[in-house]
Every structure is written in C-alpha cells, then in structure tokens.
Amino acid sequence: MSDTDITHYETRKAICEYGRSLLEDDLTTGTGGNLSARLDEDHIAISPSGIPYEEIDPVDVPIVDTDGNVVEGDVEPSTEVPMHLAVYRERPDVGGVVHTHSPYATTFASLGESIPASHYLIAFTGSAVPVAEYRTHATAELGEAAVDALGDEYNAALLRNHGVLTADESLGDAYDVALMVEYCARIHYQARAIGDPEILPDDEIDRLSGKLDSYGQ
Ligand SMILES: [Zn+2]
C-alpha cells in the first residue's frame, strides 16, 4: 500500500506538517500542543499522543469519531481529544482546531487576562482573545470551558493557566490564528512593559474583520 492509499491522506499529512511548523514557529516545545481537522460530520483527524512531531507520519494520525473512539490508526490520539471534539460539536463552522502553549499568549493565560485589541491583527480572532475558566487539562470540563469562552464570535481563547485554543474554517486558518494570537500577545506584552497601549474600539474591529478576509492573498 502506498502512502496515498491511506484514507484522508492529505488531511493527515497536513496535521504532520503543521505539527512540525508548531516547533519551527516557536508555538510549542517538545510534544506539547495538538491539532486536528474535521473530516466529515462524524469524524476528525487529530495529532497522536506522545510522538515527537518530527517522527509523525500520516499513517500515525488517528481518526476519531465524535464519541472519541479511534476508528483508524494504531497510535493513541492526543489526550486533548475531548476539547477538540467539544469545539467541533458546538461550532459547525469550524474545520480545524489548534492548541498551543505559545509563551506570550500563555503569559496572559496565567494572569487570567484577555488580550485586547492593542494591534489590529487581533481582528483575526474577534475583538479580543477571551480567557476560559481554569479546568484540568485533558478533561471534558476543559472542553466545556473553552467552548463557553469561544462562543459564536471568537476564533481563539486563552485556557487559563495553560495555553491557547484556536478554531477556524480549516486547519490552515486555525494555524494562522494561532500565529496571530502569539504575535498580538507579544506586542501587547511589550507595549505594556514600556507604556499604556491604546486599545482599538469595537467598530474598528468590525470594519477590519471584513478586510482581513483577503489578508495574505
Ligand atoms: Zn495543553
């Protein structure tokens, strides 16, 4: 059987590639973080548990049903599978989910402070990055807290004392949001370190949201 005969080969390959990007872009270290993509109404592909990103092959990427049962792949799925499934369940618009412990955004997560619109690129995620209540990692309760914070209007949330969750139409889009959240967190941190950053008003964020649809194209 050649690689391309594997079911959902392209999506599982994308999970491998974005996993390696997490390390290259300093969004995570070691085996931290996890990512997933919706395959159809009842299934997602998600990064496996405990394998270094450099070593994950498409065939290792588990396919999981909406109850969390592995239907394909010999490797255990990420322990955060309940959180990923909670997002897909509550947000039919979402096709990809990324979870990181990126350092600047996680700094705000540990403070329990949302990241406000001190830079216009926050509009990728909404008017701010809200904070989800603290829940133990790898529990269904963490998933509930995360979807509560995301609501219908945000594409990212901080997981209090833990990290970042992003969700968007595709895995690639969710990955871009994870990069933007870390960038905006870093700028906000730096701005706060030497001054008092001005926050953009909500009506400007609304205006930007429309323009950013074509950002980078
Ligand atoms: Zn985590």
From TrEMBL:
Signal peptide start-end: none
Annotated ranges, domain Class II aldolase/adducin N-terminal: 13-189
Protein's GO biological process: pentose catabolic process
Assigned GO CC terms: cytosol
EC number: 4.1.2.17
SUPFAM superfamilies: AraD/HMP-PK domain-like (SSF53639)
Highest taxon in the source lineage: Archaea
Keywords linked to the UniProt accession: Lyase, Metal-binding, Plasmid
GO molecular function: L-fuculose-phosphate aldolase activity; metal ion binding
InterPro entries, sorted: Aldolase_class_II_sugar_metab, Aldolase_II/adducin_N, Aldolase_II/adducin_N_sf
Annotated Pfam families: Aldolase_II (PF00596)
PANTHER family linked to this entry: 3-OXO-TETRONATE 4-PHOSPHATE DECARBOXYLASE-RELATED (PTHR22789:SF0), FUCULOSE PHOSPHATE ALDOLASE (PTHR22789)
Name this polypeptide is given: Fuculose phosphate aldolase
Species this chain originates from: Halobellus limi
